[in-house]
Amino acid sequence: MYILFCLVTLFACVLGTICGMGGGVIIKPVLDAAQVMRVSSVNFISGIVVIGMTIWSVGKSLIKKESVLQFDVTVYLAVSAAVGGLFGKQLFQIVAGLFENPNTAAGVQGICLFLATLATLIYTVRKEQIKSMHVNSIWIRILIGLGLGIFGAFLGIGGGPFNVAILCYFFSMETKVATQNSLLIILFSQAASTAKAAAGGVDKVPVLLLICMVLTGVAGSEIGRRCNKRLNNRQAAWCLEGAMVLIMGISCWNVYQYLVC
Q: What is the residue range of 159's domain?
């Protein structure tokens, strides 16, 4: 199990960093597809890995003074995303409670992830033809943050390309700026939702497994960052679009496994 989880984490974090979408959005559906652990436990593990990677990435950018965080925007989004993360975790528990087998909730997550990824893929392909906005209202920023927190916590993926697309569209951020600001939002929302999950009780997960996955995730992100520097913008775009198609395919498989079979 250790080898499987670490290999999945390494693959997800290398690909996720190359594409600028993070590893959580790949780790969660892949482990669900493997059916090696309860869905609630996979959510928790994915959340821990995402938090570890996010702390590493944000901390590194701050130490190296490469931070492009737009605090006037992101602070409102991050704090409200933390509140949204609590609601998102509660929403998952409600949905899981609707089924005789709580793992069936992974099928619902698969549907939501497929639709969100499809919408993000369409936006990414047509981004140049879509006019972006710049939201100044604090209340709208808070609502957007709540939505991102609820969605990321419910799916147990952090945020991935969805956060980046939202920041690009609603706040006219460049992709690289949006990616870094997205990390802060993910850190707040995942920390809140993971803490709630831990307080509510989850299946016992070996601490050594969590440590190995976090370290593997950090290593994968560094490998992915080096690979990303070797790609031109078009090649990076192909990787991102291909990764989203892969996520949609895995989501469809999870819907079939958990809702159809």
A: 2-260
| Number of CB atoms found within 10 A of residue 230's CB | 9
- Name the DSSP class of 65: T
| Residue keyed to tokens 């147990």 | 156
Distance of CA 34 to the CA centre of its chain: 19
3-state secondary structure of 100: coil
Q: Confidence class of residue 233 from pLDDT cuts 50, 70 and 90? A: low
Distance CA 171, CA 136 (A): 9
- How many distinct structural domains can be found in the chain? 1
DSSP string, 173-219: --HHHHHHHHHHHHHHHHHHHHHHHHHH------HHHHHHHHHHHHH
For 5-27, write each residue's pLDDT tens digit: 889 889 888 887 777 677 778 88
Q: Which of 64, 60, 66 is nearest to 222 (CA)?
A: 60
pTM passes above 0.90: no
Determine contact, residues 84/148, Cβ cutoff 8 Å: yes
Nearest to 44 by CA among 6, 92, 1: 92
